[in-house]
Amino acid sequence: MPEGDTVWLTARKLHAALAGRTLTLSDLRVPRFATADLTGREVLNVTARGKHLLTRIEGGLTLHSHLRMGGSWRVFAAGERWRGGPNHQIRAVLGNADRTAVGYRLPVLELLRTRDEDRAVSHLGPDLLGSDWDPETAVRNLLADPARPIGEALLDQRNLAGIGNVYKSELAFLARVTPWLPIGDLPSGVPERLVATARRLLELNKGTFDRRTTPGGNADGPGDDRRRGPLRPGEQRLFVYGRQGHPCLRCGTAIRKAGRDDRVSYWCPGCQSGPAP
């Protein structure tokens, strides 16, 4: 499942390609909206709200999409061959004289009245990359159910919007606890630091699809903006996610993996305290 930084960057690329330009091509390949024709309308802006994408279009319309596990938006130059999957996986096409945005495998695609956008996103908690970011509210939301495992609480977009499996696993590692520890068992001050670290990591990574949480040399802290260049030989981008069986960068214990699909977790049994599945 794409993280909030990926969705934010996707929105920025779509905005650069479509905003301020009139649509000359419009094709929504879902039964409910297959007859909708947006050609002749100007795209006003494209913005991210958590993991949701909102493409606002002249005339009070919003195209709402969500990538979930396998969806993506690709932008192509006029006349360029579309590459992102077979044609039967295309769910949306929006184009102007210069650029064409193609949405592949979009599990959520709906055309709304812009005034009704809240119907799609009002359930979301504070957006880690949004103008509404409110760390105090995010912490209160997380602690509202103290018995809930940390991983579940972080993934619940009603608590705070933008965290997926990658950041869930990385944040638990940085806090030195497993994703299954009840969030109420965290020592005083740790939930606040957890939320602050989440915000910092997404901010640092929102400009690139090559996400990085490691700082290069310090296994106890998140990556920083002074080390965003190419990795040195042997350096890793992530502490635990996707590193099953490899040694922990902090203690050398083999990283473990649990779950699958949209609920996968990675952790180090050597230096992360708390229950395991």
UniProtKB/TrEMBL annotation:
Gene3D superfamilies: 1.10.8.50, MutM-like, N-terminal. Pfam families: Fapy_DNA_glyco (PF01149), H2TH (PF06831), zf-FPG_IleRS (PF06827). The keyword Protein biosynthesis does not apply. The keyword Ion transport does not apply. Residues 2-103 form the Formamidopyrimidine-DNA glycosylase catalytic domain. Residues 206-232 are annotated as: Disordered. It is an enzyme of class 4 (lyase). GO terms for biological process: base-excision repair. One of its GO terms (molecular function) is class I DNA-(apurinic or apyrimidinic site) endonuclease activity. Keywords: DNA damage, DNA repair, DNA-binding, Glycosidase, Hydrolase, Lyase, Metal-binding, Multifunctional enzyme, Zinc, Zinc-finger. InterPro entries: DNA_glyclase_Znf_dom_DNA_BS, FPG_cat, FPG_N, H2TH_FPG, Nei2_N, Ribosomal_uS13-like_H2TH, Znf_DNA_glyclase/AP_lyase, Znf_FPG/IleRS. It catalyses: 2'-deoxyribonucleotide-(2'-deoxyribose 5'-phosphate)-2'-deoxyribonucleotide-DNA = a 3'-end 2'-deoxyribonucleotide-(2,3-dehydro-2,3-deoxyribose 5'-phosphate)-DNA + a 5'-end 5'-phospho-2'-deoxyribonucleoside-DNA + H(+). PANTHER family: ENDONUCLEASE 8. Belongs to the FPG family. This is DNA-(apurinic or apyrimidinic site) lyase. It comes from Streptomyces marianii.
